[in-house]
Amino acid sequence: MNRTFAALVLSLMGWAGALVAQEQPVVVELYTSQGCSSCPPADDYFHKELANRDDVIALALHVDYWDYIGWKDSFANPAYTARQKNYARASGHRSVYTPQMIVNGKDHVVGTHPEKVEKLISRHSGQAGPVALDLSRQGNRIRIAATASRQQAMQVHVVRYKPEEKVSIKRGENAGRMVIYGNIVSDWKVAADWNGKAPLDMEMRVKGDAPVVVLIQGVDSGPILAAARLR
């Protein structure tokens, strides 16, 4: 193979990697609580407009720090509160709040501003990332394969969620409301550390038929570099 042809092949491979990255969906994390009076409009927008989009992986993480004001969130997990606080520390913010949306682990926005959320989704959907990710499933096992264009400290996250659930809130600030929640995160695991030096190829067992999401994210609440989903 002469040098000119080799250079052309490498160039095409680079373009192929960029195209794979561009086609990956944008991850939108919603931090919310059943006990937060400001959250229902964001929950409604998230459920109706984001949860079923193919170009978006929408993940609702219910936090527990409003449980004390009269209603315990039935989906809340202190691990999700910790994840939100880690984002706040990484971005230099001194506090957390609901409803908050975080787009691709980078941009933070109030969840009741759909127009700002949509602009961020559009901005991220046109960006090529450094990681190409492929996710497949056979029975109760998933295979995760990825390649990176540069080395850096990353983690492989495996997420499960419930597509929809209706909750009748009896007490607290939202007493009397019936709220339909979408894409409620029910499990979140860090499955592996990866530095991108060699291709990633791993398998793991999963239970049930709930959707599976895999994220490749920089350590210490860094940006989400790649995402894939199996519904």
Automatic annotation (TrEMBL):
List keywords of the entry alphabetically: Signal
Q: Which domain of life is it from?
A: Bacteria
Q: Which SUPFAM superfamilies match?
A: Thioredoxin-like (SSF52833)
Keyword Signal in the entry? The reply is: yes
Q: What's one Pfam family the UniProt record gives for this protein?
A: DUF1223
Gene3D superfamilies for this protein: Glutaredoxin
Q: Which stretch is the leader sequence?
A: 1-21
InterPro entries given for it? DUF1223 (IPR010634), Thioredoxin-like_sf (IPR036249)
Q: Does the keyword rRNA-binding apply?
A: no
Q: What is this protein called?
A: DUF1223 domain-containing protein
